[in-house]
Amino acid sequence: MAYAIARSSISAPRRSGGIAFFRAAVAAWRQRRALERLDANARRDLGLSQADVTREINRPAWDVPQSWLV
After folding, report:
1. Which domain holds residue 45?
2. Does a structural domain hold residue 24?
3. Is 3 a member of any domain?
4. Count of domains observed in the chain
5. What is the percent of the chain where pLDDT is above 90?
6. How much is the mean pLDDT over the chain?
7. What sign for the dihedral angle of Cα 21, 67, 55, 46?
8. Which DSSP symbol is given to 61?
9. What string of DSSP letters covers 12-40?
């Protein structure tokens, strides 16, 4: 019985971790697409150059900050 309880408590975080990772990847993809649509004035207001924007939008969707996965 203790083995079954311990095993179920170990597998649950993996599923939620996968869901959290998927949500973070989708959020990153959406934010990078929005960043791509900014005009020069908006980029300047944020302190970003075109090179900064290009570098960010070319990152893969799964490349998200570790803090987003908590």
Report:
1. 17-69
2. yes
3. no
4. 1
5. 41
6. 79
7. positive
8. T
9. HHHHHHHHHHHHHHHHHHHHHHHHHT--H
